[in-house]
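Lab notes, practical 5.
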Amino acid sequence: MQAKETLFADLVQGRAQQFQVPLYQRTYSWTEKQLRQLWTDILEQAELLESGEKASTHFLGSVVLAPSPQNEATFPRWLVVDGQQRLTTLSLALAAIRDHIADGQPDEAERIDEEYLINKRKNGSDRFRLLPTQADRAQFAAFVRGPLSEQAVGGAVAAAYGFFRRKLVEAADPAAPQDVLRIEEAITSRLTLVAVTAERADNVHRIFESLNNTGLKLSQADLLRNYLFMRLPTRGERIYETYWLPLQDSLSNDELEQLMWLQLVLDGDDRVRRQDLYAAQQQRFERGEVSEAEIEAYIRELYRRGALFRRLLHPEKEANKAVRAHLHRLDTWQAQVTYPALLLLLDRRERGELDSTDTARAMSYIESFLVRRMMCRVPTNNLNRIFQAVPGQLPLDMPVADGLHQLLSAENRFWPDDDELRNKVRTAPFYKFGRGHQRKMVLQRLEESYEHPEPVDFATAQLTIEHVMPQSPGDEWLRMLSEDVVDGESAEDLHSRLQHTLGNLTLTAVNAELSNHPFERKQGLLQGSHLEMNRRIATTERWSADEIRARADELADRAIALWPAPLRGVGRAERSRDWNLAHQVLAALPHGTWTSYGDLAAFIGSGAQAVGSHLANTPGVANAYRVLTSEGKVSDGFRWTPQDVGGDVRARLSADGVRFTTNGAADPAQRLSADELASLVGEADGEEDAAQRAPESQGEETRADRFYAQLVAENSDERRFFRRLAAHDSPETVDAVRALFAHWEELGGSVRWVGNDTMSSAFLTLGETSAPGRLISPISLMPGGGWVGSAHVAFRLLAVHEPFTDHALRAEFLRRLNELEGVDLQERKPGPDPSFQLSVLENDRNRELLVETLTWFRDRWEGWGTD
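Output from the prediction step:
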């Protein structure tokens, strides 16, 4: 390759020639931000010309050129490998100048046209000195030809031309006129470029990759498109017009990238990650000598599947009513993770391997798989692997729908059966499961199952989830509950256990009117509802534990009928996962907090006695001693297991920041309720729940309301965290922690702030954006309350998160952390999680090592989630 500094005029002037932007390049994309900066640079150079000063020119950037396959000795044609944005912008600026002076200085306008914009003696597309990529070509040509036509309206090219026309009018202001021809001279003779010219033997695509495959300049879809059309020297134009351009116009760049990834998955690559799409597809093509015909076949197939993919994005495009209904519900569920299976079904139907009836039946299994797992609180962190594996694992010896049913029922798929679903509907806090839109969809489907002759239009109805027995019960509600308590349980504990169960929930448009009023007042409003489920509630004489359980049983029957069960004998879920969830939330208890047996039982949908028995007989449960009675006392039946270190419980609690009142009870202000426990492991949809609770409480703010409000108010929690940190640590430590947070966010993580009046924490978290449904926090940072701040490694909590269930990975995590000077972390079984003082981060090398370790952690976690 040859490189030399040049001017725009020297590059494009002279004999007839053409600069072609290849099909593989993305479209023109400069925005007003880049245009404004360029205009400022142009005016500065124009002023220097006007003053006669001898000053250096302005460097604009590089242009990489290569001989075009259409090159001719008498008419040189160059591929613009890099720099098309600059060349297109300068050409549009000169077209705007030409049109601005056309009436007053027609000769000068003609000169600009012939020197920079057109090849005067050529026709057709050869007439243009710059030929943009096909998507921009017609619009660009309209501005170069002039006068403007309708096809030149709208788009980035038109916006750039319009920008320069406006700026030229401003430059002609009589109060401070500027010479337009000086502006032209500044563009053509004062903006320098480095022109890099490749030889014909050079691998142009490799050059393009080296220029664009770093940073964020091009997406995976951009790179793969570029690669494909570089391999289509003779068929590119036709294939681009026939298949690629319509596909590109019908999908966003992100959607197109997702389709390309899905095509790889459907073709059998069940381990590829979207971020590795380009490399994986390129590797496939380069395993052998791939012809243009094979690449064309790939693009044709992508085009065909694109039409099917748009039905997933826009279910209203599906013609069959039953299939359309399933697609709508899965779209409402935001079940993008199921796209590999859904696209497979639509693809097989189009190929004639199953009809619409069987397609709808297969989709019902997918819907049931998601809904039953959510209702039974099965973790979602492996859903992407399950559905990505469907195309490669689908049985070949049975019909597609039956094969999918069997595959999803297999061992370790954790598709809850009827017995588990019935039990969870009766006992588990459904209101704390999944996301708000998912809970609402379940209730909507249950309402539809009554088949009311005049059903509610859910698309327009402003319905929210209502607790029939309110979250903040008055005396009348507690008196009613007290009639149903057994085994010494209090009315408050019974309320905590039943309030969020499905039997106590409904949909309504009058949440504010229902509020937390007594049941007799709610009955009248529910009787007038258009929802059948509400009218049935209204016919009940009272609403307490027995009625809630009876309704739960009725809804369970309907749920079982709506959402098919897995096949028996193929595999079933392990019930131990509820205790794993309890272990997770106990390990996540922030410093200075405790919870009760009843709170933990309500959180997992169990009973207080069962929780006590489990903790008493299960060794190694983190923070088990921080589960107390509802009065804040250590239970009379509490015993350390033989494997635990033991010691005085109250001393251990004090060391963990738990305060005690004068009567020896743990401070109730430090107690975490079931709702607050849910927030610690990402179970609650806090913002929505808080918004829905507000009308019920009618201004009576509960402690849970305050907690959720604090979770949503991230900025206030951040300020609280750093105020407490600065109170007991040096300014250098505070700055080091801020720098750590910035590095963590650069790695794709987020900082999750948790705080109340007694404590403040910052959790380094992965999973809220890059992998919906998965949440993991390797380290939490806590400022001291009279002591220096510390970082806590969630060693035991990691043990229930893949891939860190592997002890060797957890040990490697500790080893890497111990490379920090002044850090010596040891695994303790049992005992508190290992920690180190935040002041060690003042050392720059320590901070670098920690960022490297966190990068290692992120890579292990993300790699497992998609492998």
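Observations recorded by the TA: DSSP finds 39 helices and 15 strands in the chain. Confidence is low (pLDDT under 50) at residues 571-577, 683-715, 768-773.
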